[in-house]
Write a structure and sequence with these properties.
Number of domains: 3
Strand content: 15-25%
Number of strands: 11
Length: 509
Amino acid sequence: MTPSSLPVGLRLESLEVGATPLIADFLRRLQLPQLFQQHLPAQPGRSPALPSALTLTLLLTNLLLARQPLYAIPAWLARRVGEHLDFEAGQVELLNDDRIGRALDHLDRADRASLLTALVLNAIRVFDIQMEELHQDTTTVTFHGEYANQLPWDCLDRPPRITFGYNKDHRPDLKQLLFSLTISADGAVPVHCKVFDGQTSDDAVHPQTWEFLQRVIGHANFLYVADSKLCTRENMSFIASHRGRFLTVMPRSRSESRWFCDYLQDQPLPWQEVHREPHPRRRDGPDVVYQGVESPSRSAEGYRLFWYRSNQKEEADRQARQHRLERARARLEALQASGRRHEFASAEEARLAGQRILLAEEVEGLLRVQIEETVEEGYRQIGPGRPGPQTGYRRIQKRRYHICFEEDGEALAREARCDGLFPLMTNDESLSPAEALGKYKYQPFVEKRHEQLKSVFGVTPVWLKNVRRVASLLWLYFVVELVQALLEREVRRQMKQAGWESLRLYPEG
């Protein structure tokens, strides 16, 4: 039947189902609509025509499936089958961007920490998520605009402040918020998030994060894994003093790293292969092999240190050092190229110019710079006028300074022995080097969640100008990541049960 052949008074309506029933099923299993109703504070006056709990659920579904601007959500909703979203056809006319904004305000007035705890506990219980190992990482959410009308810094009840900081999207010209996310090693399911002021340093978020996880799990006997920002005396002591366990990367700037490299020059160590995997980029490339050993000396705080050598990182370190040396040589040679307008006035000036280049290219211990002084003699006429038989001349000397450099072979060999090394630090006395590496290699999954937040779900650009609404929206994005991760985990578990290694998603199979 075509629209033109319909009886008088009837019209043809096309509605979309899509993945809406699937999303609605996961939200119901998480009991999110009921949690919204329980934790959103009561509003004074008469009840709204469209409850905030329903409005937020509809917004959340849109973020998962379409990510439309707020003003376009009613039009998007009008094309969906209402029964899968628990709304009636007449309610679409009540939804607009202003009502969605007021629902975000309503969420801001709620105790979102308690709401988050209840939501995570439901997810753990319903989906049987294992919480023995948790991974934390941060990213930045970048904002365009001034955001000048924010509450003062000393205001107690204020949302996170959008301001300048260390931007991980390499946009130092834009303001930001710091977004912290923690996932479980069981399916990379998000179990905690918190938004901090834009200038907050990464090492300041761990005590709050660990305390929340300890309250949710009910005990401290879980392994908390994070990057090198966890490796501060304060953070590690905080977790250890509460009988918690941690695993982190030790920065190479610590004295333990220099000690181990010195120890490695003369002392043999019982390196053992602890992990092997195929080459990540070339099918015919060599396997990536990791060797590991426990350091004979503990950290300054008394924690265990595992050292690893990767053949892939070893080759990368060698190439990086070679490139630095080549750049340094080219810059040193350019300092004394013929036709250079500026000449060094003294040997000290030439030496400082060479040292600046070595420092900039990070090869100050690998190249030795020496200054060679030469004296050129010449004669200059005494007095003005044309030279003649009676013209007098005086002898002059001009000193020139040349930068000579050579490689320090012993220093190069010494550094080459430390190629491919990286250390892990832990207070867990039960871990072997292989187990510690295997657990830390799960860390990229939390980085993958950040990548999905920014690319798949398009968290930016954020067009909201009200900072409180921004904080509420980012809280909803945590729920977006939670639902997506649970759905992915469910698919992978059923694939494993069915013995399927992959799904035929493309037309060609």
